[in-house]
Amino acid sequence: MIEAVRSAMDVSMARDDDVVVFGEDVGYFGGVFRCTQGLQAKYGKTRCFDTPISESGIVGTAIGMAAYGLKPCVEIQFADYMYPAYDQITQEAARIRYRSNGDFTCPIVLRMPTGGGIFGGQTHSQSPEALFTHVCGLKVVVPSNPYDAKGLLIAAIEDPDPVMFLEPKRLYNGPFDGHHERPVTPWSKHELGEVPEGHYSIPIGKADVRRPGSAVTVVAYGTMVHVALAAAEDTGIDAEVIDLRSLLPLDLDTIVQSVNKTGRCVVVHEATLTSGFGGEIASLVQEHCFYHLEAPVVRVAGWDTPYPHAQEWDYFPGPGRVGRALAEVMET
User: Fold this and answer.
1) How far apart are CA 26 and CA 31, in angstroms?
2) Residue limits of the Transketolase-like pyrimidine-binding domain (predicted)?
3) Model confidence over 240-293: pLDDT tens digits?
4) Domain finish residue from 146, 168, 193
5) Cis omega (within 30 of 0) on the bond before 317?
6) What global pTM score does this model have?
7) Known catalytic residues?
8) In terms of residue numbers, what domain contains 255?
């Protein structure tokens, strides 16, 4: 997945001289996860460069560049570090098109590793996607595999509006399914680890059905897609697993079509339960599928606590917790 993200930036920089990449340690060092490795050597220090440790400065600079016609693809080293830049993101980047009556757009991409599962503790494991989905003018993307990561990142770079591109760091090297006691399968042995060379894009706002089923709909994104697939396999329940891929805009049609078919819905995300994006999905399912529901919508999510280092695998919504939720809705 690291290689797929890097390839998306490489392809975009080769096709368009206005695309620039910058952030903390992304130049010579190639990024803390090596997602930008080699880009500075290939495109030079004016198109791939390091910045001071100032997230507000990084995003503010990107907004100014975008207003003058460039297409910045910047990295926030961890999603946990985006808070100093939240004002720039929500008050400036998200509103430029609206406040200028369409005279200006803000074609920036903010890449940020998100989520836990790496023993990063409370300041390297957060999932802040819901803080962005509440803001009009932003788009929010969370890929679950290398193939989607490249296609969605290219689409994000080519989009005229700001895109928050959250990369689940636990998926960088393999499709982690929550069974932390087992060896991780590398992407090289997974069908979605096959990533074409060159340019291709995946439309932002279109979900994908990862596993067809008829008993219950599981709505997930990022790492939780693989956890949901593992839970369906472990329990033997005929679950249909939807990978949202894009939270904003949201592919509501795919969700509604699935829930109307199955009559049951479980929503899974790694972020804190209260005010998490799963609450929005549950509300939409209730609103659009009420007369087809056979059981209440159930959410499986992180605790309402800071991310605990010592109890990571209790906090992390694993296949056991998801499996119990599936059983619960099937018994209702």
Assistant:
1) 4
2) 1-174
3) 999 999 999 999 999 999 999 999 999 999 999 999 999 999 999 999 999 999
4) 193
5) no
6) 0.97
7) 124
8) 208-331
